[in-house]
Amino acid sequence: LNSTNTQLGANASIPAKPAQTRDTSHLRLGNRGTVTEASGFNPEEDAQKIYNAMKGAGTNEATIIEILAHRTIAQRQKIKEAFKQSVGKELLDCLKSELTGNFEMVVVGLMMPAPVYDAYELKNAIKGAGTEEACLIDILASRSKAEIKEIIATYKKEHGKSLEDDVCGDTSGMFQRVLVSLLTAGRDESTKVDEAQADIYEAGEAHWGTDEVKFLTVLCVRNRNHLLRVFQEYQKISGRDIEDSIKREMSGCLEDAFLAIVKCMKNKPAFFAERLYKSMKGLGTTDNVLIRIMVARAEIDMLDIKAEFLKMYGKTLHSFIKGDTSGDYRKILLELCGGEK
Description:
Blueprint lengths: L1 H4 L37 H12 L6 H8 L4 H15 L3 H8 L2 H10 L3 H13 L6 H10 L2 H15 L3 H8 L2 H11 L14 H4 L3 H4 L3 H10 L2 H15 L3 H8 L2 H29 L6 H11 L4 H12 L3 H8 L2 H11 L4
Helix pairs in contact: 2-3, 2-4, 3-21, 6-18, 6-21, 7-8, 7-9, 7-10, 8-17, 10-11, 11-14, 11-17, 16-17, 17-18, 17-19, 17-20, 20-21
Organism: Sinocyclocheilus rhinocerous
Subcellular location: Zymogen granule membrane
Main location: membrane
């Protein structure tokens, strides 16, 4: 907990008003989220309630949860503006001075527009000793072209550095090449299946073998419909699922990256359901993964992630979170999860 929380200490460079120049929060929104626009929304009233919850001795966390877990990203930006106007301070700074631990991490994440949060998570994954490769994979394998372009621009603006340069400085080999390819945001996003593309017919294991560049070219560039067809053909020719072959042929971060791309192409909510399950099963919890997915997907496809979780594991995501977390951290995650079913 402590090591995770040090990333959010007083010196962390959290952007103050990232949505001022260009509001990009709409880019990520889906219509399958558990968090939806609050009706009768009054940012000034919300800002006043949050201020009252923090002033004086102690903090009324229940009020903070009640408001922030039930407002969209766009609405939270308006609360930030109203708070600054009425109190003369940055809401994010005030929240960070009042809250601690994993609860603070969730709240801080909720206050950022989507590209800013992704850029912030990527920066934390790269900086310091070691790299959290899972974060790089989770974000870059699952975001659309438009989203990746926004993340790159936001990263440069917030951190004054090129995301590609930072990724290259912290990774190596074929894994680095996969991440760089994803960062070019060059994936074809048409729905056309090109029968003439050789990779449909050369998908057999005998042809691909350990040709990692072939995997990279196909998995990082082709559109989703084309890839789903490639996976079908691959199964026919080699008698093996593409995921099984990746597991046999690859290892480490490269294996994780290719698997994440395949899974996101097949079924993105199922990919996130599996990541959530693995973050909580067994002893201990990988809180940074749990927080990142709950915050990032709450407004997009959390309803679908919950449905896939139940289908895959026979238990509700709600029950898993409830059994694996505690206190205000548990309360805010359960609100983002949105009910038991």
